[in-house]
């Protein structure tokens, strides 16, 4: 009789309740034996424990596993842990955010262990909110809302309406949309944009040429995306390489009437430069993220009529909470059955290297 795989899961107790749905646990238990290592901490425990006792506990736990799934509260899976786990074939991080903080990738590769990260469990709602912000921006809905709640009469005469950006540029259908990065969020957004028959431009120096054909878009430079789009959507995760990627020179390329959407990280954009560009009044900014967060009470962004703000909520939905583990359950089954992973972990900071076909700008 074939031996059932043994899968270990490391997480805090609040994290287990919040992210690890019983239905998915039962699905894994149908074909594998599950072991739990419950660690102290909160549902979103910050940091990675690095004390000797925690490392020893993880090493003992992993010794007889075929697969190891880590999450909040887990110590780092280092060379010592891997050396003591000869049967280990797979490591998955449900909440690693592509940073490889919990896994020594070089040591895993040396031991022939596949490593995956399913942080993309929140990609779908981020893509949906990016689409929503695009529509809000094109209709100038943020400005209309501000005036409505202030008790203003929006259209004192018809000529005012006819000059409004929401009237002049309000339809998404047929527009040119520029995407800065083509990771999981970007590819999902491409699907959501399909009914609008938009022309798509994308900047992602690590994306293979074939992706342009698969997604029916044009891969191009950052400058052309910024200068040639009616809507620009920033989807870049924050790395040392992407910090300040969009500064004053880049923002100056945006043509009047452009809608600029950011659902990535605020620090990808130079905040002061963005404020200065928006103060000109010929752009509409729709921002789910800013730098710093929370946004200062006296920030000009709070008062600008051409700015719509949301409080970093794009990826935060109840449905997404359980999806991280659902995707990981599929991934561990895939790898242990002999298939290649879909969400292989490559750390974000590899983006410091010159762009190659394997060096993606995004997760």
Walkthrough of the structure:
The protein is α/β, with parallel strands linked by helices. The chain folds into two domains: 147 residues, NAD(P)-binding Rossmann-like Domain (Rossmann fold, 3-Layer(aba) Sandwich); 187 residues, NAD(P)-binding Rossmann-like Domain (Rossmann fold). Helix content is 34%, strand content 15%. The protein has 15 helices and twelve strands. The two termini are 40 Å apart.
Notable characteristics:
363 residues, alpha/beta, Rossmann fold, 2 domains, seven-stranded parallel beta sheet, 15 helices, 12 strands, elongated, disordered C terminus
In short:
The chain is α/β, with parallel strands linked by helices and 363 residues long.
Task: Write down how many β-strands occur, each being a DSSP E stretch of 2 or more residues.
Answer: 12
The assigned CATH architecture of the largest domain is 3-Layer(aba) Sandwich
Radius of gyration: 23 Å
Q: What is the CATH topology classification name of the largest domain?
A: Rossmann fold
CATH superfamily of the largest domain: NAD(P)-binding Rossmann-like Domain
Specify the helix fraction band. Answer: 25-40%
Average pLDDT confidence is: 94
Low-confidence stretches: 350-363
SSE-based structural type: alpha/beta
* Major sheet characteristics: 7 strands, parallel
Helix-strand sequence: EHHEHEHEHEHHHHEHEHEHEHEHEEH
Strand order, biggest sheet?
8-7-6-9-10-11-12
Determine the number of helices (DSSP H or I, runs of at least 4 residues).
15
Instruction: Report the sheet-strand fraction.
Output: 5-15%
Give the class-level CATH name of the largest domain. Alpha Beta
Give the terminus-to-terminus CA distance: 40 Å
**Global geometry:** elongated
Structurally, the number of domains stands at 2
